[in-house]
Write a structure and sequence with these properties.
Blueprint (H helix, E strand, L loop, with lengths): L2 H38 L5 H34 L6
Helix pairs in contact: 1-2
Length: about 80
């Protein structure tokens, strides 16, 4: 892989990771608000709350999968032998 292409891929991966970090912070704040709202709702059972939070936490699991794939991409790019032609 040419060095310019390698740098581009690594730069794009870094930009994507920054975006993931922002999304993760937003999700944490959003989840905290959701937990508070669910706790305030007297009409919901504990099971209802758990089910809703489990559905919500799917977003977090998806982000973890994206982080894992991002690391795999980074590892692949770094492992490529540089081409000098």
């Amino acid at each position: 892989m040419p060095p310019e292409q390698r740098e581009l891929y690594l730069s794009e991966a870094e930009d994507f990771e920054e975006t993931l970090n922002l999304l993760e912070r937003d999700l944490q704040a959003e989840r905290a608000t959701l937990v508070k709202k669910l706790d305030e709702n007297i009409w919901l059972s504990c099971k209802d709350r758990e089910d809703m939070l489990d559905l919500y936490d799917t977003k977090t699991r998806t982000m973890s999968d994206m982080r894992r794939m991002l690391q795999e991409i980074r590892d692949l790019v770094v492992s490529e032998e540089p081409q000098t032609h």
